[in-house]
């Protein structure tokens, strides 16, 4: 078994990734492979916090833009994240992984309310903690929620599992001359308006000195590879 280089990580997975090729809803084959990798990390002694987006069900700005009041549309997006949290928690539990779901908006019948000290205690006991409802506030993305929770639980790194294999100088689907970076600073991401995370999330990770490692989720085993220090994807950190 490989040796992890991180003790505690915050893994962020987009909702769209959980939909697989269907692009909406849930693909349990994909979720199963993701959970296999999370399980492997837990077996290596890595403490895993997880934030999942909700875009496979609802994206507040995109789906509600111009037709709904923004705050209500964002609240619907928060509810969408909970659907994904419960699905991932169920698959992890089927694999024998101890899990707790905590939500920023209280819904005690199905999840614990988010309490920082309790989340840390769960992590110390080897449980995966899945954080739902984003930050609990409208106008903030789940990327920002991931950085916020990473700072609160003292995560050493944010693992950003995306549908792209790294940070590029331009959109590689549109510009064949786009260059992939192995390393880039927070300042350069902000100055070049690169689509790593939204600017609020990037600034928050910079202010709290938390490196962000972006990699492709197409092969979910990449989660294990980056935890063990394999050089894949792009790392965003201070110079």
From TrEMBL:
PANTHER family: URIDYLATE KINASE (PTHR42833), URIDYLATE KINASE PUMPKIN, CHLOROPLASTIC (PTHR42833:SF4). It is found in: Cytoplasm. Its main location: cytoplasm. Residues 7-217 form the Aspartate/glutamate/uridylate kinase domain. UMP binds at residues 54, 74, 135-142. One of its GO terms (biological process) is 'de novo' CTP biosynthetic process. Catalyzes the reversible phosphorylation of UMP to UDP. It comes from Oscillibacter hominis. This is Uridylate kinase.
